[in-house]
Amino acid sequence: MNMVIRDGLARNFLAGRWVEGEAGARIAVEDPATGEIVAEMARAGERQLAAALEAARGSVERGDLSAMRPGARADLMRRIASCIRAIADEGAPILCRESGKRLSDARGEFEEAAAYFDYYGGLADKIEGKQIPLGSDYIDYTVFEPVGISAQIVPWNFPVSLAARSLAPALAAGNAVIVKSPELDPLALALLGRAFQEAGLPEGAVSILNGIGSELGARLVASSEIDQIVFTGSVPTGQAILCAAAENVTPSLMELGGKSAAVAFEDADLDRLVESVQGGIFFNAGQVCSAMSRLLVHRSLYDRAVEAVAALAGGLEAGHGLDEAAHTPVISAGQLDGIEAMVRAAPGQGARIAAGGARLDRAGHFMAPTILADVDPLSDIAQQELFGPVLCVTPFETEAEAVTIANGTEFGLVAGIFTRDLARAHRVVGRLRAGQVFVNEWFAGGIATPFGGIGKSGFGREKGVEALYNYVRTKNVAISLKG
Ligand code: NAD
Predict the structure, then answer these.
(1) How far is the CA of 194 from the centre of ligand 1 (A)?
(2) Is 2's pLDDT higher than 70?
(3) 182 touches 156 (CB < 8 A)
(4) Residue-range domains of the chain with CATH
(5) For a Cys staple, 64 with which of 13, 202, 269, 354, CB 3.0–4.6 Å?
(6) Which of 109, 214, 237 should be mutated for ligand 1, with most atoms under 8 A from CB?
């Protein structure tokens, strides 16, 4: 067994201490590129959760972060950012091994995580209420208070950067956070605990617990002790969590899945489109909530576009993320089985395999980069999220038809438009049912731009200034000056 992770890191970060799981229970962590077990992660249970909740409540009641001068909290956030940068060299290979992603992308996650702490650090001393005029007999003002304990459930596709996406604004606003890490790749995320320690974050303000979603995660979200749920993950899990949230009326933020479409009009720049397809559906082996999983192409450009994206897919070399391979594995055998089964069924519903179409004959969990052409927009493959390197291409004749197909799923996370005609781009932006629209570049935007979904893609927005206000609640104070 090739244990690449030192045991000391494969533990839960419980309010500033590194602890084992329930009765020494552990979860095996696999390298998806080889199938080897690379570490065994301590598995937290009821006792560790109770201790994390107690520590978080203590932190909230003492006002560890909320009573701090906002400028000092801002400085703390920036120190966390630099401590995250300092662990990137150690963390990136760990993340690469446990998730299968490219080493440079793993490093990019640490960079992005640090950038979130810098960004929200810059806002920590700018959370300002307002004064509301009520005439000379009253003084009225609003204050923003932290929500309290934020329970955050993180998925496996970008464990480090997605954890930071919610942790940074929550801490900047003065909350305590309990993170439930993804059981498939919890190791690099646990390392963030070291950055918190080194930056001097008050103990109790953050715990990172590793455990099975349906056990530890379900217990956390059902707890009456928490004040908020931030969930990033799949629709069925989000639905289960919303049921648990209803019991305690716990405010929730849902960042769920997608089946996002790019619409390429007849005047689209084909080179730019192909470049966007490469990032849009093959980055991280397509395991991106905002992946370009559908491409709608105007009939006049359709054959050339299918040929170009099929050539792109056929040219991507598979390999280990440590070797910076162009094409990396999906996270697990189960995930690969599901993707391959969906792809194999697609020709039965009219699709044509233009590239790939099956798993690669090698160790690890590799799905061939796949292009399905002539996809019926109502077929299963066009409607369900696969979370893999599979692009569905469909032709269209008119703008109205393209909009109908793009909007024709139960999701609404992102959408894209490829055209040189800005008037058309603006018009179509207004008609697309999505939380964000990319024009002529998939994934345009960054940590400063609000991100979130419509429909079954969820509700609430992460990233940007707007997201900070998820982590506070407004209190209005009305003072009578009469008499
Ligand atoms: P998942 O729903 O299986 O798991 C997500 C997390 O929820 C994991 O930590 C898991 O342990 C936990 N969990 C599972 N059951 C739970 C329960 N009953 N109660 C509490 N927690 C539970 O999702 P996944 O497979 O890890 O991630 C892939 C999904 O996440 C895709 O659908 C993808 O689109 C979505 N995603 C969305 C965004 C976004 O910002 N919208 C970002 C990344 C991923």
Answers:
(1) 24
(2) no
(3) yes
(4) 5-256+461-475 (3.40.605.10), 260-446 (3.40.309.10)
(5) 202
(6) 237
